[in-house]
Design goal:
Layout (H helix, E strand, L loop, with lengths): L1 E6 L16 E5 L4 E4 L1 E4 L10 E6 L4 E6 L2 E7 L10 E6 L30 H30 L10 H21 L2 H15 L2 H6 L4 H12 L2 H19 L9 H14 L2 H10 L6 H5 L7 H7 L14 H29 L12 H17 L4 H6 L11 H22 L29 H7 L1 H8 L1 H27 L41 H20 L1 H40 L6 H39 L2 H22 L10 H17 L14 H13 L9 H15 L2 H9 L2 H11 L8 H12 L50 H13 L1 H35 L7 H27 L2 H4 L6 H19 L5 H8 L9 H22 L8 H7 L6 H8 L63 H18 L24 E4 L4 E2 L1 H8 L14 E4 L4 E4 L1 H11 L1
Antiparallel strand pairs: 1-2, 1-8, 2-3, 3-4, 5-6, 6-7, 9-10, 9-11, 11-12
Pfam family, one: zf-C3HC4_3
EC number: 2.3.2.27
GO cellular component, one term: cytoplasm
Length: 1186
């Protein structure tokens, strides 16, 4: 935005604005620059609400700018002159920018002495208007007196009509007729009408005297002016008051803002005025939202309040007590204005002015507020908003304004519940969700579309509400459906077709949306019901609107507030690091100066001085930014999201959980709950447990929100897999909310305190098979209970080779966000470890007790792990091939992102497998379980394949790691190798703890050692000390077992007789660029964990000597599916063959043959032993014979 003066000879376009041509002069306050062909630094940085004045002195050739009445100095002192050159006020704007220009048509807020406005002051009109205003004021006092007397004598049976009253009415008619000729001028409205109203009364006086002069004056206007005339005047008055209220705060004084709000409050004490403003003004262009928003202090005021030496963050170590004292001072400055805003909002929701023909103010407020909130929510539904929604909002509501508005609404709702329904539980009645009381328009229900739910659950509604009320609801639905059919036809054939792209365009009263046809709604035109509103229903609707408003717009600024905190925390770390290295270097320099003082010359002194200067410069850069953010955080701590507003969010969370819990008790009717209630849960939990804290900590205290968090944990556990919740977005929101709980220690403890029913439901939901559902996030939740217990799994942040020290970094929750500050899902959250022994025991007991359930779950985990790792290796091979074919290759970001995602899924599934084997080892160690052998062999095969692919010999994985690509920074050796080692240690833990001197090969060791992909070098790679040579597959002897060929092995006891001959061939490969060893990561791996790997290798090596060196059968007898194990099973009736592991794994998912697709009846071993029988197929012939 550039404003100033320009000649009529200037030609502007989209690339050239004011100041970019020879005959124009402009100022840009956002960049603090002036423009006249060239540019230079000038002036203050402007902000929303500023009043910028521009003066032009042609004689002296001067152009000067003023900000809020203060001169910023001469901007230009040389102007272009010549024939035909005349200057005009000019401005160039961006697409979303806007201003309110005043050329003298309204009184100047900051007139500049010696300069005149472009439009002359209407002196004669002002005189006439002031004279007429005096007469009207006197007459209004007389009418107010008569009204008071009439009210006092209202009980009398006769009302006297005097000649004097008639004369006064004639005078009023004549005065209003004259006054109407003058009042339509904005200058008259602001300089005469508003000034006179301001001087004649005060808010306190108006409340005490309902028959004041101002009320009489407004009555005169409503009785003797045309409706359109008085409405025009009122709109202009509100605009003028809003302009004053939104003006930038001068100093620490909010008195002008309070006076402007008090004047509007006085106007709204008049019933007719209040109802008109509610219907026709306050909810347009966010007018009421701006009146309920407190504008922050200017930056120069914040600089005066908080000098640099008083700024505090953990990185700059200022006086914390004084800093918090300034925060409290700012809060107290805004308290009177906030109290006035609450008082004003109370007046707007008066519920005693309804009549049989007119709704009460509260009814109007709620009706308009619902439409306003629904229109705001359309921003999250761009398809509906662009094509179908005739919204009254053309511009989105600013995030800070939305947060202030929703917080004051919650505060008002809480107070009204206390005053009007003191003994009632604060919640939204679940009946309102399905009886048509509330209109949710485009929002779906957790069970699906409203029209479908009404058809399915008619009997349930009948039982709940009664047959009469149910019939009324369905009659209204049929009526609305017929109306919607007509609306659809008119919409497709009428003028709407030509105005689709016009956002906010309204055609008539039949405004519809796409989902309007699926979710029929009552009260089509939005007309409010006459009479006073029911207290309970109105307060429930207000609470309902608070929840929708918070979901639609209110939460967005909280995320930005947390971003300020996160940036301060990052700067604190940098400042602490800089301070440490600076002190270390200075200490070493001082020691050098002391020991080498004789040989120190000027060059050395100069170098040391430069080092100190560089450290000081680095520290000053980050300290300056920290000080700026600490000033910004004063307003955030004291006003924008202070403790009082945090308590309001906690209160709303408690009420929302109580509403959902009671709605769940309605049985099938829980499906009618609007989706917004469930979708708001993770957003509100994030705010309460994380974002509303202004200091970054590894774990936040939750003493004030303990009850709310506990109730949320109970609800989320019970409903984690509720079949009544059908909507995909609601299912995802439940997982997101559970993720928020598990990211915090207080949340995990709340889940542990929940009821047994809730915990069992949660565990069962998380352990459902990973098929036909979004399993990534539920697997992430399982790992939250495990992180901190697994092998080298103390933190979800990957370690860095160049990270110094041996202590882990204790950092707080880190969330990945997109450009619009929204979360990108649980899989991108990085949170401190909060393991739960309690849930580990629950998971273990569930898997041990229910064998089919455990087998199904573990089979799905292994299948998904196999898929994820296979996809990951394929992508690595593509990347390697592409890079080797071309130089300076540019990879597609999407391909790299998918590769990184597959790697992260692989690691997470391996960690899940580690947890399962640790908490329920009987699944694979107990040979009596039906599928134990199958699962054990699959696990060993997968782990061997993973280790062989990512360790030695160096392959595509090492190649990609050596690329050091920023998009693949998550693909490193540490997470996948430690996960694989964790699984092996979990499998072998019982043997390592008990079997110190193994004499026999156990079932577990045999399964791992006999896997064709196993090599000892893959385990030694983790220690960085490969001692065992690699064997190529072609060099491993094949053939049938022949004891005579193994004289060094006892065929009965399998004991070693002679040393194992080493005649293997060594494979040589190029050394990797980035080498790996667990000892390089002391922050994540301790010495005991490294010793466990050495013990594991030694134990397996000893047991391998007890095995045959002939580990693979001949090629002719290999299973044609896995090509690794011998054929041991025959299928009937087709007689095809494979190894028993392959066919049993296949039978978990399918009942037909691998090759011919014939339904398998039985599976037998080569000696005829039956190992599987398809009961479904076998029972059919038996039934036929019977």
């Amino acid at each position: 935005m550039q404003m100033g003066w320009a000649s009529s000879l200037c030609q502007f376009n989209e690339n050239s604005g004011v100041g970019d041509t020879k005959l124009s002069y402009g100022y840009d306050g956002s960049k603090q620059q002036i423009w006249h062909i060239s540019t230079k630094k000038y002036g203050d940085k402007w902000q929303i609400g500023d009043i910028i004045g521009v003066t032009l002195d042609v004689d002296k050739e001067l152009i000067e700018y003023y900000r809020n009445g203060r001169s910023m100095g001469v901007a230009f002192n040389k102007l272009e002159k010549g024939p035909g050159i005349a200057f005009y006020a000019a401005i160039s704007l961006g697409y979303t920018q806007g201003i309110q220009a005043n050329f003298g048509n309204r009184p100047f807020v900051y007139p500049v002495p010696g300069f005149q406005p472009l439009m002359a002051r209407p002196i004669l009109k002002l005189r006439r208007a002031n004279l007429l205003m005096n007469y009207l004021t006197n007459l209004a006092g007389i009418f107010a007196k008569y009204n008071a007397q009439y009210k006092a004598s209202a009980n009398q049976s006769e009302a006297r009509v005097s000649t004097k009253k008639t004369v006064y009415c004639i005078f009023a008619t004549m005065l209003i007729e004259r006054f109407t000729n003058e009042i339509f001028d904005s200058y008259i409205i602001e300089d005469v009408l508003l000034a006179r109203i301001s001087s004649m009364t005060s808010l306190t006086a108006e409340k005490e005297n309902p028959h004041s002069v101002l009320q009489g004056l407004l009555s005169l206007f409503w009785n003797f002016m045309e409706g359109d005339e008085i409405k025009f005047v009122l709109r202009k008055m509100v605009n003028a008051l809003l302009s004053t209220f939104t003006h930038t705060v001068q100093g620490l004084d909010y008195e002008k803002h309070r006076q402007a709000l008090a004047m509007l409050h006085c106007l709204c004490l008049n019933e007719q005025t209040r109802k008109f403003l509610l219907e026709g003004k306050l909810f347009k262009k966010h007018c009421i939202a701006f009146f309920l928003y407190i504008h922050p202090l200017e930056f120069y005021i914040m600089e005066e309040l908080l000098p640099d030496y008083m700024a505090w963050t953990e990185g700059i170590d200022g006086p914390k007590e004084k800093y918090l004292g300034i925060v409290e001072k700012v809060r107290k400055v805004t308290e009177p204005l906030y109290a006035a805003q609450k008082d004003f909002l109370s007046t707007l929701m008066i519920n005693r002015d309804g009549t049989p023909t007119s709704p009460s103010s509260r009814t109007l407020f709620l009706a308009k507020m619902r439409r306003y909130v629904i229109d705001l929510s359309m921003e999250q539904r761009p398809f509906h908003a662009f094509f179908f929604m005739q919204s009254s909002i053309q511009h989105p509501l600013d995030a800070p304004v939305a947060l202030a508005f929703v917080c004051i609404l919650i505060d008002q709702s809480r107070n009204m519940f206390r005053e009007e329904l003191p003994g009632k539980n604060v919640e939204v009645n679940a009946d309102y969700f399905f009886d048509g009381t509330f209109d949710y328009m485009h929002f779906d229900r957790v069970g699906g579309v409203l029209s479908h739910l009404r058809k399915v659950h008619r009997s349930d509604i009948d039982a709940r509400l009664g047959s009469v009320r149910t019939q009324q609801i369905y009659d209204e639905d049929r009526s609305n459906s017929r109306t919607n059919e007509m609306d659809t036809t008119l919409y497709l054939l009428g003028e709407n077709v030509h105005n689709v792209a016009v956002i906010g365009h309204t055609q008539g009263t039949n405004n519809t949306t796409f989902t309007h046809f699926l979710n029929p709604r009552t009260n089509q035109g939005g007309e409010a019901t006459p009479g006073n509103a029911d207290a309970e229903a109105s307060l429930c609707e207000l609470l309902d609107l608070c929840i929708i408003f918070y979901y639609s717009a209110g939460h967005k600024y909280i995320v930005k507030i947390a971003s300020v905190r996160d940036e301060i925390a990052a700067l604190n770390d940098v400042l602490k690091e800089t301070k440490y290295y600076r002190e270390d270097v200075e200490r070493k320099l001082l020691a050098l100066e002391q020991h080498a003082n004789v040989c120190m010359n000027d060059g050395h002194q100069h170098v040391m001085g430069e080092l100190r200067a560089k450290f000081s410069q680095r520290q000053n850069v980050f300290a300056t930014r920290s000080i700026s953010l600490s000033r910004k955080q004063i307003w955030l701590r004291g006003v924008a999201l202070n403790n009082q507003r945090r308590s309001l969010l906690i209160w709303m969370l408690e009420r929302m959980i109580r509403t959902l819990t009671n709605a769940s008790n309605t049985g099938p009717l829980f499906a009618f709950v609007p989706e917004v209630y469930v979708n708001t849960l993770p957003i509100l939990l994030d705010a309460v447990m994380d974002f509303s804290h202004h200091d970054m900590k590894a774990q936040f205290e939750a003493t004030d929100s303990e009850c709310a968090v506990t109730s949320a944990a109970e609800f989320l556990g019970v409903h984690s897999a509720d079949p009544r919740i059908v909507l995909a977005s609601c299912k995802d929101s439940l997982l997101q909310a559970l993720g928020t709980l598990t990211c915090h220690k207080a949340g995990v403890r709340a889940l542990e305190r929940s009821s047994r029913k809730s915990q069992v439901a949660l565990v069962r939901a998380l352990l459902r098979p990973y098929e036909n559902r979004a399993w990534g996030q539920s697997n992430w939740l399982l790992l939250r209970f495990w992180m901190g217990e697994g092998y080298a799994y103390k933190d979800s942040r990957q370690p860095c080779v160049w990270q110094g020290g041996s202590l882990p970094l204790h950092m707080g929750l880190c969330r990945s966000r997109s450009k619009n500050e929204t979360h990108t899902g649980l899989l991108h959250n990085v949170a401190p470890a909060n393991p739960s022994k309690h849930f580990q025991r629950l998971i273990g007991s569930k898997l041990i007790e229910d064998e089919p359930f455990a087998t199904s779950f573990l089979n799905s985990v292994l299948s998904q792990l196999n898929w994820a790792f296979s996809e990951f290796i394929l992508l690595l091979q593509e990347i390697q091939n592409t890079a080797q074919r071309q130089e300076n290759t540019l990879f597609e970001p999407k391909q790299l992102k998918i590769c990184s995602m597959c790697f992260e899924l692989t690691v997470s599934l391996m960690r899940c497998l580690e947890m399962i084997i640790t908490v329920a080892p009987e699944i694979v160690t107990d040979p009596s379980r039906p599928n134990s052998d199958l699962l054990l062999n699959r696990i060993c095969q997968l782990i061997s394949q993973v280790l062989s692919r990512v360790t030695v010999p160096p392959g595509c994985f090492q190649f990609v790691v050596d690329m050091c690509s920023a998009d693949l920074n998550a693909v490193t050796h540490f997470p996948i190798i430690t996960a694989a080692l964790g699984i092996l240690l979990a499998l072998m833990r019982s043997e390592m703890d008990v079997d110190i001197t193994p004499q026999k090969v156990t079932r577990l060791s045999r399964a791992f050692l006999t896997d064709p992909s196993f090599q000892f070098a893959t385990l030694e790679f983790a220690l960085g000390e490969i001692r065992t040579p690699l064997l190529e597959q072609k060099d491993i002897p094949r053939g049938n077992f022949d004891p005579s060929a193994r004289p060094h092995i006892d065929p009965l006891t399998n004991d070693l007789r002679v040393p194992f001959p080493t005649n293997s061939k060594r494979i040589r490969a190029d050394p990797p660029i980035i080498k790996f060893a667990l000892t390089d990561f002391p922050t994540h791996v301790n010495s005991e964990e490294i010793d466990n790997i050495r013990r594991l290798i030694d134990g397996l090596r000893m047991k391998q000597t007890l095995l045959s060196d002939i580990t693979l059968p001949s090629e002719d007898s290999l299973c044609p599916i896995c090509c690794a194990k011998p054929i041991t099973a025959v299928f009937t009736p087709c007689k095809h063959q494979s190894c028993s592991d392959c066919i049993m794994q296949h039978m978990m998912n399918s009942k037909v043959c691998f090759y011919c697709k014939t339904t398998i009846h039985t599976i037998e071993t080569l000696d005829g032993t039956l190992i599987y029988s398809n009961e479904d197929v076998m029972q059919t012939p038996m039934n036929e014979r019977a």
